[in-house]
Specification:
With about 270 residues, the chain is of the alpha/beta class. Helix content is about 30%, strand content about 15%. The protein has helices at about 60-75, 110, 115-145, 180-190, 210-215, 235-255, and strands at about 15-20, 25-30, 75-80, 100-105, 105, 150-155, 160, 165, 170, 195, 220-225. It has a 7-stranded mixed sheet with strand order 1-3-2-6-11-9-10, with helices on both faces. β2, α1 (about 60-75) and β3 form a beta-alpha-beta unit. The longest helix is centred in the middle third of the chain and has 28 residues, at about 115-145.
Length: about 270
């Protein structure tokens, strides 16, 4: 058992947080939007503090859920320490939404006039180190004979543009079914649980985090989205951790194909 830590490093200290875990467990956990913190040099990006408590700044509940899963499964994990408003680690370096000037109705003053030089500086200081750390963890696991299955943890708002979202959770994936489909099936088997298949988003996005570390490298992977009102407090996080752990243990134990490097291509390939 690996202890859950209470405080993340500040982005002034490191752009990522690491849980060492045991590569032999076969699982690597990622959390791209774990924090709403901003480096001191950026202040609040000109936003009032309450905006940084919204989903536009981070994925509510996901850091605690990721850490609880890592502790229960003995799995390594890599998490960001900075807000997605600074730069979005779940976007490719060439993605036009990498640095958002407007997010769900909120103008971000500190991003409004950012230029190519500022974009490059944020990539170098925050975006790229996170991905290099993820890649290094994967490389080490493969070198040790344990190609990992990757699970990325995200959350989403219960209502979007006035429309309630009916799913309790969603499994996002591209073309590799090895991890996503069994996880989708086992969650859907729970009575009363509504689980979306590539809902509320599509999992095929060129050069996003799982495209880069899963699809392109032939590693089994899935992205789990949990509705934010269900993991917005300690009780909710504990409940979802308790739900997910036995499912994940069973899938990892019963499906050796998860640990083989295979190329499935992508629905978003050029």
């Amino acid at each position: 058992m690996f202890p859950v830590r209470s405080a993340a490093p500040h982005p002034d200290q490191s752009p990522f947080e690491i849980v060492d875990g045991d590569p032999a467990c076969g699982l690597l956990l990622l959390c791209d939007h774990a924090s709403n913190a901003l480096p001191s040099a950026y202040g609040t990006l000109g936003l009032p503090p309450e905006q940084l408590q919204r989903h536009i700044a981070y994925d509510i509940g996901v850091r605690d859920l990721t850490l609880q899963l890592a502790a229960a499964l003995g799995a390594p994990a890599v998490l960001t320490t900075y807000s997605r408003l600074l730069i979005d680690p779940n976007r490719g370096e060439d993605d036009p939404t990498l640095v958002m000037r407007l997010s769900d109705g909120a103008v971000v003053p500190g991003n409004a006039d950012h230029d190519a030089a500022e974009r490059a500086a944020r990539i170098s200081a925050y975006h790229r180190p996170y991905h290099e750390t993820v890649a290094a963890r994967i490389d080490a696991s493969i070198a040790a004979g344990h190609p990992p299955a990757i699970l990325s943890i995200h959350s989403y708002t219960p209502v979007w543009r006035g429309n309630p979202r009916p799913w309790h959770a969603g499994i996002l994936w591209d073309s590799d079914p090895r991890f996503a489909v069994p996880l989708l099936e086992t969650l859907r088997a729970e009575t009363g649980l509504v689980v979306g298949d590539n809902e509320p988003y599509d999992g095929a996005l060129r050069n996003d985090c799982l495209y880069r570390h899963g699809t392109a490298r032939g590693l089994a992977h899935a992205l789990l989205e949990v509705r934010q009102d269900l993991i917005g407090d300690t009780e909710g996080v504990a409940g979802w951790s308790a739900r997910l752990v036995p499912h994940l243990k069973r899938i990892l134990a019963e499906r050796p194909e998860l640990f083989q490097i295979r190329q499935y291509g992508s629905r978003c390939a050029a």
